[in-house]
Amino acid sequence: MGTSTPEGTGARTPSRAVEQALVDAAERVLVRDGLPGLTVRAVAAEAGVAPMGVYNRFGSKEALVAAVLVRGFDALRAAVTGDADADPLARLTASGRNYRRFALERPQHYGAMFGARPATAVDTAELAEHSAAAFGALVEHVRFAMAAGALRAGDPAETAQVIWSAVHGAVSLELAGAVLTPDPAATYETLLRLIVDGLR
Fold this sequence. Notes:
Layout: H1 4-33, H2 40-47, H3 51-58, H4 61-81, H5 88-105, H6 107-114, H7 125-147, H8 156-175, H9 184-199
Helix pairs in contact: 1-2, 1-4, 2-3, 4-5, 4-6, 4-7, 5-6, 5-7, 5-8, 5-9, 7-8, 8-9
């Protein structure tokens, strides 16, 4: 009985480590080959395991993609959370800048997260929870700014959706090479100012 607990703990830890290693491998494949290249065979080769090893852990390619997307949404949430002690409008604006930075630094992740997901990932409860948490970080910035009187009162979720629609559109155009102004960063800063000024 004294040895059963360590053995039980040890049995779970390697299993979790293998799962995380497979998601690591899947992220490398995503960055290198894009979402179309993210196959079980490619991930197995990257991780140095048999394809059945991937299926044993995730059950399907779609579930593996969902696990990669969970990581993506966690990274996005961390990027846009920002400094809780900052001025409300500075905090909101910084969140917008960090959203763009995330998309430009991880274009393959961003495309997989907000592209044609239904064909490539299962909508697991975990994925829904983590994607909602990323949006929730923006909602909290808006709620904080409204409570401080920096933005006009309203429904924080509705206002956050409007902001997200604007910045997502701008970022998507930039990723597609469709920004026609000479300095995309400056154009994006103008957009952020217009959003904040319009919501004061």
